[in-house]
Design brief:
Blueprint: H1 22-31, E1 46-47, H2 59-66, H3 76-88, E2 93-97, H4 100-111, E3 117-120, H5 125-133, E4 137-140, H6 161-170, E5 178-182, H7 195-208, E6 211-215, H8 219-229, H9 238-247, E7 251-255, E8 266-270, H10 273-286, H11 297-309, H12 313-332, E9 345-349, H13 350-353, H14 363-375, E10 377-378, E11 380-382, E12 403-407, H15 415-430, E13 439-443, E14 454-457
Parallel strand pairs: 1-10, 3-4, 5-6, 6-7
Antiparallel strand pairs: 2-8, 7-8, 9-12, 11-12, 13-14
Bound molecules: pyridoxal-5'-phosphate.
Pyridoxal-5'-phosphate is lined by residues 52, 99-101, 124, 126-127, 182, 186, 215, 217, 255, 257-258, 266.
C-alpha cells in the first residue's frame, strides 16, 4: 500500500478552543450584526475566516524571535531577511513592510496614478482597493474557465493572454505601467498560475514595455501545484520552481502572513535599484526606516526562517493535502465547491448551494451565518458584499461568483477539525431548502465594506 500523507511536524504546544451551544451562537451572530468579523474569537470553535497571520510558528521560528536584533538601522535581522529573500525569491533589493497591503501602498505610491489601468488576474481586495483609492482601475483578465465552478482546469489562476493583449493594445501606453499576477490567485479560489502562463505574461510585458508584479502571498503553494500539475516539473524541487517563477517578475509584493507562516509581516522585492530608490521614500514615510520598515527585528528573523520552512515540499504537501481532505469530504456530502480545490481554502458555490436567495440578498453571506450557527465554524463571504459598490455609479457590483471561503490556517488544525467542519456544512446543506431569505445592509463603509458592514435578516 502507498503510505498516506501525514503532517511533517508534531505538536509541542496547544491552545484550548471553546465549544458553545446553538442558542448562544444564534444570539452572538445577531449581536455581531450578522457580520462574522464582529464575532469575538472565543465565540468561534473552528476559525476558518482566514489563513492570514493565523498559522502556527515552528520551534525554530520562536528561537529566531529570541535572536531578533532591534537596532533602528542595519539590524542583523534585516540582513537575515535580505539573504532569505535573495536565496528563495532571487531579488536583490527589498523593503520590509508591516503586511501585504502596506507593501501595495508603498509600491503603488510610485507606480499608480489617476486614470491608470492595472490589468491582472482577479486582483485581491486590498490590491484593488489601493488601485481604486488612487482613482485607477483594475482590469480582470483571468481566463473564463475560472468562473465556471464545475470546470476542472489545473491552472484557473491563469491570465487570458488575448484579453491582456487587447487591453495593452487599446489603452494609451502611459496609462499602464505594470501587470499584476497573483500567485496563487486568491479571488478566483486559491487557484494556481502555470509556469507557461507566467512565461507568456513576461513575453507580452516585454513586447509592450511593462513591468510584471507578482502579488506573492502564496507563491510556495503555487509552486507546489506547478510541481504536481505542470508537465516537466515533477522532478524539480519547490525551490527550483520558485526561482523560475520569480525569474519572470520585475517586482514582488508579499503578505508574509501566508506562505512565510508568520503572524505579521510583508515586503516588496525589487530587481531594479531605481524603482527601489523611489519606493524607499514612501516606505520611510508610511512604514519605517529602510532596514525595518513596519517590522520588529524579531519578526524579520521569524519571517526569514518561515520563508525557508514554507518552501519545503513535505510541509506544503501536508498543508495542501489537508485542504483537499476537507474538499473531498464535502464533495462526498454533495456540497457544491469550486473545483479543483484551492491551495489555502475550500470555496463553496453559494449560488448553487442557495439558489432560492436572490443576489441582492447576499447568498454568500447567508452561508457563513448558517455554518456558524450550525457548528461554531467561521467562514467568510467572497461575493457581492466584498465586491463593494461601483466607485462611479455607487451601484452594488455583482461578481461572477458568490462564494463562501473556508481558509485553513497553516499547521493549526487536525483532520478531526476538518471532519467537524464538513459535517456542520453538510447539515446546513441538508436543510438548505428551508433557508429562503437573505440579509440586507443596515450600515456600510464606502470602501472595503465587508469588514465593518452591519446586516439584518430579511
Ligand atoms: C493577504 C493578501 C494581500 C494583503 O496582505 P495583508 O497582509 O493582508 O495586508 C494581498 N494579496 C493577496 C493575494 C493576499 O492574499
Amino acid at each position: 500500500m502507498k503510505l498516506p500523507y501525514a503532517e511533517s511536524y508534531k505538536i509541542k504546544m496547544v491552545e484550548t478552543i471553546k465549544k458553545s451551544t446553538r442558542e448562544e451562537r444564534e444570539r452572538w451572530i445577531k449581536e455581531a450584526r450578522y457580520n462574522l468579523f464582529n464575532l469575538r474569537s472565543d465565540q468561534v470553535f473552528i476559525d476558518l475566516l482566514t489563513d492570514s497571520g493565523t498559522g502556527a510558528m515552528s520551534d525554530k521560528q520562536w528561537s529566531e524571535i529570541m535572536l531578533g536584533d532591534e537596532s533602528y538601522a542595519g539590524a542583523s535581522s534585516y540582513y537575515k531577511m535580505k539573504e532569505a529573500i535573495k536565496e528563495i525569491c532571487g531579488f536583490d533589493y527589498f523593503l520590509p513592510t508591516h503586511q501585504g497591503r502596506a507593501a501595495e501602498n508603498v509600491l503603488f505610491s510610485v507606480l499608480v496614478k489617476e486614470g491608470d489601468l492595472v490589468p491582472g488576474n482577479s486582483h485581491f481586495d486590498t490590491t484593488k482597493g489601493h488601485i481604486e483609492l488612487r482613482k485607477a482601475t483594475a482590469v480582470d483578465c483571468t481566463i473564463d474557465e475560472a468562473f465556471d465552478t464545475t470546470n476542472y482546469h489545473p491552472f484557473k489562476g491563469n491570465i487570458n493572454i488575448n484579453k491582456l493583449e487587447d487591453v495593452l493594445k487599446k489603452v494609451p501606453s502611459e496609462k499602464i505601467t505594470f501587470i499584476v499576477v497573483t500567485v496563487t490567485c486568491n479571488s478566483s479560489g486559491g487557484q494556481p498560475v502555470s509556469m507557461q502562463n507566467l512565461r507568456e505574461i513576461r513575453e507580452v510585458a516585454d513586447k509592450y514595455g511593462k513591468l510584471v508584479l507578482f502579488d506573492s502571498a502564496r507563491f510556495a503553494e503555487n509552486a507546489y501545484f506547478i510541481k504536481k500539475r505542470g508537465k516537466g516539473y515533477e522532478d524539480k524541487t519547490i525551490r527550483e520552481i520558485v526561482k523560475e517563477m520569480f525569474s519572470y517578475a520585475d517586482v514582488m509584493t508579499m503578505s508574509c502572513k501566508k506562505d512565510a507562516i508568520v503572524n505579521m509581516g510583508g515586503f516588496i522585492g525589487f530587481r531594479n535599484e531605481e524603482l527601489f530608490n523611489k519606493a524607499v521614500v514612501y516606505n520611510i514615510l508610511f512604514e519605517g526606516y529602510v532596514t525595518y520598515g513596519g517590522m520588529s527585528g524579531r519578526d524579520m528573523n521569524a519571517l526569514a526562517q518561515g520563508l525557508k520552512e514554507g518552501t519545503e515540499f513535505d510541509y506544503l504537501e501536508s498543508r495542501i493535502e489537508q485542504v483537499a481532505y476537507l474538499g473531498k469530504k464535502l464533495t462526498d456530502y454533495g456540497v457544491p465547491l469550486i473545483l479543483p480545490y484551492g491551495g489555502h481554502a475550500i470555496f463553496v458555490d453559494a449560488l448553487r448551494f442557495l439558489p432560492n436567495i436572490p443576489r441582492e440578498e447576499f447568498p454568500a453571506q447567508v452561508l457563513p451565518i448558517e455554518l456558524y450557527i450550525e457548528g461554531g465554524v467561521r467562514g467568510v463571504e467572497i461575493g457581492a458584499l466584498m465586491a463593494d459598490r461601483d466607485p462611479v455609479t455607487r451601484e452594488n457590483r455583482f461578481p461572477e461568483l458568490e462564494l463562501m471561503r473556508m481558509a485553513i490556517p497553516r499547521r493549526v488544525y487536525t483532520n478531526n477539525h476538518m471532519d467537524h467542519v464538513a459535517v456542520a456544512l453538510a447539515n446546513v446543506y441538508e436543510r438548505r431548502n428551508k433557508i429562503k431569505r437573505g440579509v440586507k445592509i443596515i450600515k456600510e463603509a464606502p470602501i472595503l465594506r465587508h469588514f465593518t458592514v452591519e446586516l439584518d435578516r430579511i
